[in-house]
Amino acid sequence: MWTFTPYQMVRLWMIYLISTPLAFLLGQLLLIAEYEGWITILLSCCCSVFIVSFAVKLASYDPQVEWGVFGERIIGKWLHKMIMMLIVFYCMMLLTVVLTAYRDFFGSTYLPGTPDWVVTGGFLVCVAVVSRSGLQTIVFMADGMFILIFGVSLLTLFFLPGSVWPDMSIALVTHWNGTTIWKSVLFVTPWFAEMMLVLIMLPHFQLNNKAMKYVIITKISSCLLIMLYWLITLFVFGPHLGGHLRFPLMELIRFVEIGNIIENLDPIMISLWSSSLFIKCVLLLYMAAHLLAQVFKLPSHRPFTFLLATLVYVFANGFIKHPAEFGAFVGSSSFAIFLLGVQLVPLLYLIINKVRSCLVMGDKS
Q: Coil, strand or helix: which one is 113?
């Protein structure tokens, strides 16, 4: 089994965690949380670390064997298979949401005359081909793109603050609403808690019993970058206008004018965000196919890659006919609760294992 360094895991998951929030979810955060967004991001990051810790703890039960293999020893063969299928569905749902959002942005902005099914199909074919190549290809691709994605993202921050309204910053400490914060934390926490999926691949990384250290490094770095972009977007557009923009960060890049610098960087930023979304989609498809191969006891995930990609294609094109309903569903509390429920699956294994251990000790006594 090929193993990777801890910081390769950090780079891969940092790209994964920032891709969707920066590109598509800042507007919803501005709309829901308004000026309490910074509190929401901090609390959500802390909650997600707590959730991911369950996955890391579960993986530590057998560090040399993948959870998909040893999990049946804890809760039984058939229940474990059903839970694995649930996580496969979870990965496919996330992939469908990301793909639909990407198609809406890229198709409407750069390919307005191209049929949606062409944009979706072309993107998914590329995702399936890379995913079929395996985890080694995905990790090395993330390594190659990491410096470009984060370098340009951080560089752009130096040009943006000149156009913000610093007087608005007083509202960050004067606007407090417990109900708003609670609802927005429920909405935002699943963004960060998606790293629970690291459970599937932890044996592939040489973490030396320090997995939580690298998880925290990943979380803090991603959280800070998202918060910086959220702050600048808030200061430029305000919570009301920013909350009703479909892609506020893209509008921000066009809004700020410093000579021709930002204008020239616009296509570069779009291509780098597209690359980060591509890596996220590839990783989701790989993990779904990998788990499905373990369910059916097959040695490789490759036979399932194009099958799952085809299913996602069907789902994504089905949502084209109902864009308003799809948007309402993705932004609903029921969808957030479903995501959190799946992300807490490792906790179920930990509880069952603890109960079984207590029962065994009770029988011995």
A: coil
